[in-house]
Specification:
This is Phytanoyl-CoA dioxygenase, peroxisomal-like. By secondary structure, the protein is an alpha+beta fold. The chain has a single domain, classed as q2cbj1_9rhob like domain (Jelly Rolls). It is built from seven helices and 14 strands. Strands 1-2-12-7-14-5-4-3 form an eight-stranded mixed β-sheet. It has a four-stranded antiparallel β-sheet with strand order 6-13-8-11.
Length: 296
């Protein structure tokens, strides 16, 4: 399918066709970017203790439900940090962005529990990151890795193909989030086809910061967590100090370091986000995230 590729640890490299697809579509999909063993290690970190999840909070979607969220600014040395510092994430994003050295802007974990997980409204990441003092949207991207299976039933990502070329859209506060005006979306959807991004665990959607996307509420009995790593370039270091990271040199590690990592609980240096200092969202402090220890 257009814009889709498969990860082979022995031969994967970013090709001119991938770069062309990324620039034209606003994204590419890489199937199997993390394999089953790497996903198992990630699960051990996120579900084996509360070292990360104790920092999670809820963001209301304005429609009666909420999305759980956990965000940290620096990768650290645990398995989540090693994944975000691995060559296959860093070098792939660096080549797709095409503006030189990149650094870890932040990692986030959206949490959509069965039947209760809320929606993300139509938005661009740059709709938020513009407010943080990032001057150039094409210098930022996100590697969205499916933690659980993502399908239409449990609220998978939806994108408007090629919508990054429409530039930054005006965003308005809805619930605890920021969203694009629905009338504007209707017009854009006539020229930018809607795509449901259905993913298996370990598959990755790598997308431009101006790509317009959303996800519906999870009304199914299947959990839907996601693991997202966002990168920015050194050249695009934000002009404002804010709740995400300023330029910090990234200690890139070989892909083999993921399976060699045995750190599942030491989160030193990650700097978890306190939602009270995030001026781009409104968290619901009265509704803590309750995390079950079992997957779907």
């Amino acid at each position: 399918m257009e814009g889709e590729y498969s990860y082979d640890p022995n031969s994967f490299e970013v090709t001119e066709k991938m770069i062309e697809d990324y620039n034209r579509l606003g994204f590419i999909i890489v199937r199997g970017l993390l394999d089953a063993q790497e996903m198992a290690l990630l699960r051990k970190t996120l579900e084996g203790s509360d070292a990360i999840m104790k920092h999670a909070y809820q963001i209301p979607d304005g429609l009666g439900k909420s999305v759980g969220m956990c965000i940290w600014s620096h990768p650290g040395n645990d398995i989540t940090g090693i994944i975000s510092r691995s060559e296959k994430l860093v070098r792939t994003s660096e080549k797709l962005i095409g503006h030189g050295e990149i650094y870890h802007y932040h990692t986030k974990l959206p949490i959509k529990e069965p039947n209760t997980g809320g929606s993300f409204r139509w938005h661009q990441d740059y709709g938020y990151w513009y407010q943080n003092g990032n001057l150039f949207p094409d210098h930022l991207n996100t590697v969205y890795i499916a933690y659980d299976k993502n399908d239409r039933e449990n609220g998978c990502m939806q994108v408007l193909v090629g919508s990054h070329k429409a530039g930054r859209q005006t965003h308005h506060r809805v619930g605890g989030q920021n969203g694009i005006d629905e009338e504007r979306i209707e017009h854009l959807a006539k020229v930018c086809p809607l795509k449901y991004v259905e993913l298996e665990p370990g598959d990755a959607l790598i997308f431009n910061a101006n790509l317009i996307h959303k996800s519906d509420a999870n009304n199914s009995n299947k959990r839907r967590w996601s693991f997202l790593v966002s990168y920015n370039t050194k050249e695009n270091n934000p002009v404002y100090v804010h709740h995400h990271a300023q330029y910090t040199p990234l200690d890139v590690v070989p892909n083999s370091a993921i399976k060699a990592c045995a750190n599942f609980t030491d989160m030193t240096g990650k700097e978890f986000l306190d939602p009270s200092i995030d001026k781009t969202v409104i968290a619901d402090k009265s509704n803590p995230v309750k995390i079950p220890k079992t997957s779907e």
